[in-house]
């Protein structure tokens, strides 16, 4: 398996990072700085480079440095098919990426942050997004299937809004795509849950907790007749109610939904990410780069150490943020790790 590596990044006019140009190496890198120094902004820039968008919502304001009109990020990678350069730029509300597609597969990134616990205790839509994102890396045909579903859905919805006259020609392709997506998700989840079980058993943290699929798999014929039944109501609302947003999964203990503390949910969220990574990278041969923001925010030093230990075992490139003088750095950093200090948006490699 090949671990994607970001060898160099140049970040310009992105949040408080005016002009950062640094070389990185594989393994662990610690980004250390006081509050508001720009640690998360650096992680965010790496995430943008891969995914094209930030992991922080709109309430965090513009990614472009205040007073400026454009931002740019360039990354030089060691990718599975050789060295590559990818870039992201934002100007006048437009985002451009080079290559236009494929950055996410050249440099897949995984994030552990203050919202990781929400993967366990948050809305179903978060878990669906997690499953679908991993599914698309696991099975390259999945992207095409989702596009086909969206195309057919918009055609069926347009037909509903136009009065649903004539033959219901979209019902069958809609049912076929919907059923294929549910099946593919369930198939992915089966392999994923197996990996999750193995990881939990090995670590002995939450040995008894199981990941269970709460999705609905309906056959095409059944879906076609349900679409016909629901057609008058669909016509009234102007869209098809039966969609791909019904699937979910839950963590169960002795058959009941597991409810834990915020810290336990965060650790389990990390284990879910690790299980997905093992499955996906085992299939496509590319290991992700990890961004770990503020790991110890809800975790005791022991639990932080265990998460860091699991990430080290993967051999991936990992960027951790840490406040100076906190236990996380003292207890988890090793002599081989690289350390950068961030101050007012400037990055400096620590010596020694
Ligand atoms: N568009 C922007 N232009 C300029 N500065 C910005 C912009 N957006 C955010 N900032 C500022 O960038 C600074 C760095 O924020 P960041 O979240 O990266 O800090 P941090 O080092 O992760 O801090 P903490 O340890 O408190 O989480 C903050 O002062 C923030 O107000």
Automatic annotation (TrEMBL):
Its main location: cytoplasm. The keyword Zinc-finger does not apply. Residues 6-71 form the RecF/RecN/SMC N-terminal domain. InterPro entries: DNA-binding_RecF, DNA-binding_RecF_CS, P-loop_NTPase, RecF/RecN/SMC_N, RecF_2. It comes from the Bacteria. GO terms for biological process: DNA replication; DNA synthesis involved in DNA repair; double-strand break repair; SOS response. ATP binds at residues 33-40. GO terms for cellular component: cytoplasm. GO terms for molecular function: ATP binding; single-stranded DNA binding. The RecF protein is involved in DNA metabolism; it is required for DNA replication and normal SOS inducibility. RecF binds preferentially to single-stranded, linear DNA. It also seems to bind ATP. PANTHER family: DNA REPLICATION AND REPAIR PROTEIN RECF. Belongs to the RecF family. This is DNA replication and repair protein RecF. It comes from Lamprobacter modestohalophilus.
